[in-house]
Design goal:
alpha+beta, 2 domains
């Protein structure tokens, strides 16, 4: 076993796997920062201010660790950094599993929904991978440092400060490139989805489905608002939603549900972040519901007002 763990190809595989997990987790959280912060605050494990700081900082730390491990820039240092981070993830998941047994983990932001038992399993694997990299000194294989050494064998020995500065420069460029490409892909996907959209259908489970159906039978579109306690984005959006719900009370039905109270149900509905707002206009023969519009995360007052106006006109 010791021989296998010291094999340079095995160590490289450990670096790439662990780095890949951190990169995937960081990108999904960076693209949905407010959603991840809301998840951390919703755990109610640490004071709110500290939870918000943790939620904003951790994705960037994960991005650094991921790039460092994949590129081989001080991988043992990054492995050491990742161990307390993984432990904090495991503590949070254990706490959430006890307090909110049916909730989902925000480990990969809103892109990949994981149950807490699955999350804890991944945390255990990450811990073992980090430990194996940390105790193994044979990590200088397929790294940016090796490439530098081939270009100039004396560079590392004679100009250490410049050598490590260049390594960190490559890291920064890699991090910026990953973020920019991720935002570009997300924007392209959103643009494509918007251009090809005709109508969106969604499944709603009982007993919420009966409430929505009852309001639709009365000829009213339904404004469905999913919130989470401690969600800072919800606190910003809620006054807007409540105000418009009051303004349209005669023509639009308003239903508000707690994400954590109905987490299993909203997960089945495809809702992975808060706040989420659906404007529902019709129930279809197969039991699904047609959405006139939806908002995931932040929303603007006039956008929601326009969506409600359109929904009311459609049902006239």
């Amino acid at each position: 076993m010791n021989i296998i763990l010291k094999n340079k190809w095995v160590v490289l595989a450990f670096r790439v796997i662990l780095g890949g997990i951190f990169l995937a987790a960081s990108i999904s959280k960076i693209l949905d920062r407010s959603g991840f912060v809301s998840t951390v605050v919703g755990y109610e494990l640490i004071p709110r201010t500290l939870a918000e700081v943790y939620g904003w900082v951790i994705p960037w730390v994960e991005l650094y660790i991921g790039c460092s491990l994949v590129l081989g820039v001080l991988p043992r240092v990054s492995a050491a950094m990742s161990i307390p981070l993984v432990i904090s993830f495991a503590v949070a998941s254990s706490y959430a599993l006890e307090k909110f047994p049916d909730s989902i983990c925000g480990c990969f932001g809103s892109f990949i929904a994981l149950s807490h038992p699955v999350s804890l399993t991944i945390d255990g694997i990450m811990f073992l991978l980090a430990l194996a990299i940390l105790v193994n000194k044979n990590t200088e294989f397929v790294t940016i440092g090796q490439w530098f050494n081939r270009l100039n064998p004396s560079f590392r020995r004679d100009k250490k400060v410049r050598y490590y500065t260049n390594l960190l420069g490559v890291m920064v460029l890699a991090m910026l490139s990953i973020v920019l490409v991720s935002y570009g892909i997300e924007s392209l996907m959103l643009k494509t989805a918007t251009n090809s959209w005709s109508e969106e259908r969604a499944n709603i489970l009982s007993p919420l489905a009966e409430k929505v159906s009852e309001q639709l039978k009365e000829g009213k579109p339904v404004l469905l608002y999913v919130f989470a306690e401690g969600c800072s984005s919800c606190e910003t959006a809620e006054p807007i939603i409540e105000e418009l719900a009051g303004d349209y009370s005669a023509t639009v039905a308003y239903i508000k549900i707690d994400y954590y109270q109905y987490s299993a149900q909203v997960l089945e509905m495809g809702i992975k972040t808060t706040p989420t707002v659906w404007v529902i206009i019709r129930q279809n023969p197969d039991g699904s519901f047609t959405l006139a519009n939806r908002f995931d995360g932040s929303l603007e007052r006039e956008e929601l007002r326009s969506a409600l106006d359109s929904a009311v006109k459609l049902l006239r």
